[in-house]
Amino acid sequence: MSLDSATVRRIAALARIRVEDDELPRVQAEINGILGWIEQLQAVNTEGVEPMSGGSPVGQAQARLRPDAVTDGDRAEQVLANAPDRMGAWFGVPKVVE
Amino acid sequence: MHPTDFTLAGALAALEEGAISSVELTQAHLDGIAKLNPRINAYITVTAEKALAQAAESDARRKRGDARALEGIPLAIKDLFCTAGTETTAGSRILKGFVPPYESTVSQKLLDDGAVFLGKANLDEFAMGSSNTTSAAGPVENPWSRANDPDTRLVPGGSSGGSAAAVAARMALGATATDTGGSIRQPAAFCGIAGIKPTYGRCSRFGVVAFASSLDQAGPVARTVEDCALLLKSMSGYDPKDSTSADMPVPDFAAACRRGVKGLRIGVPKEYRLDGLAPEIAALWDQGLAWLREQGAEMVEISLPHTKYALPTYYIVAPAEASSNLARYDGVRFGSRVTEPGSDLRDLYERTRAAGFGQEVKRRIMIGTYVLSAGYYDAYYLKAQKIRALIRRDFEEAFRTVDAIVTPATPSAAFGMDEKQDDPVTMYLNDVFTVTANLAGLPGLAVPAGLDGQGLPLGLQVIGRAFDEESVFAVGRAIEQAAGFTALPGLRAGA
User: Fold this and answer.
1) Which terminus of chain B faces fewer neighbouring Cβ atoms within 10 Å, N or C?
2) Diameter of chain B by CA atoms?
3) For chain A, how many structural domains are there in total?
4) Is residue A73 part of a domain?
5) pLDDT tens digits for range B174-209
6) Could you tell me if the ipTM is greater than 0.90?
7) Considering only CB atoms, which chain B residues are within 8 Å of A45?
8) How many CA atoms lie within 13 A of B399 on its CB side?
9) In chain A, whose CA is at the least distance from the CA of B361?
């Protein structure tokens, strides 16, 4: 199955990546090339197969529950230290609400 | 002997005997970096002053009789591991200038064991690539070159290309690396060194910039199998900060290297004899099996029937997870920001991400977004998760009858920087032998085993049962010993 340019635009918008008009044909061709190659998976019979989620190999212990307790915090300075537009104790962004 | 010619184990012995100090060892590696890095570009950041201070402290500690497991050993740290106070870029423009306020668990463990950090190693952007040509810091050059064509600059493999090139060129005694589809093993094979991706969960992922969380694992690259064992021992262990890290005892991997392979059953997967497999690779594989047979192991043909679906499965699962993980780069909390006058918040996101990410990263984010989008999730992502379960089951069946599996590490030797760049899928095929271990969560080690007709290194891969890195090390060491791989790259410190 091949994606048309409107679908590629929609995906780029969902991914919050700006794609310029002159890039679109190349991006579309590359994505379609990859999706075409992936298409071979439809031939595999997966009837009744439980999907594997997470990366744990067979036989590994299940993830444990930890106590529901605060173990970290009060690090506002560190959290803000790399902000591209810090405004006092906040992250600055363009005006969202009029 | 030049100080950069030590193995890691050899350097530890020399430090212990007082034959060399950590300051001398560190300075020799820094001199090598100063001379070679302008060409090889294996390091994005060199922390010379910090390294020498750490080394001096380490020498003092050894003098007091307090030496730890890796006391005074100079290492390179892949620039995907967050290092407190030292810029960490993941090879991306979007993280330019990012200085983590915290240390990754793996690098902290190495510091706790006395290691000295020389700097941050180059990599494919966000660890996405097999050639280290997608880094915002520029490509890394493989220190090896073709005997009959020395002017063609070769790739070191990827994504841990800087780590592998630094170790091969003797600009570090070892390095941290990460492997999501082959990013430790393929560059190790291309650069003629050893590298292991341990079992998923063996090393904590805390503080490692995330690519595909169900596949990412940290591991070491070094010049010998034993050196990898020493590093992995320090890097491993349960970490409450990573819910997928395994609460398992960490064995003495170096001791396992000396076990031998007598009586071990070695699986030889028939599906890995790909159509068109290079004759040199097939011959090296046969040679490796013969070496193991001579040392008392038994070869068993096995079948891993879903092998051919592994790469396309990976190229659904990994981009899907990447699209989710990389959503955090929004130009608001950290990293770079790009806006135009009048940009609203959405425009800020879109411009920041368009300018901050490279082509391959954007491609994968968009593929991942598509396969997770409403209406396509079942057809792509869920289907891939089911095939992943079948691939894992293939291995489970095989490991009922064998103790380890031996395959080629890569389908070719290192290629030229301008080769294989036209079509993303051609580049993806580099990981055909390595990606299955990531999907199944199993340990895989690459070990240098010979040279091709042009004098370039070729590697073999050993895959083991979950949490049985010990057998992997035993088999890897047996191959290494039989191969007697002593060839050296043309570009190296102390040469």
Assistant:
1) N
2) 73
3) 1
4) no
5) 999 999 999 999 999 999 999 999 999 999 999 999
6) yes
7) none
8) 23
9) A17
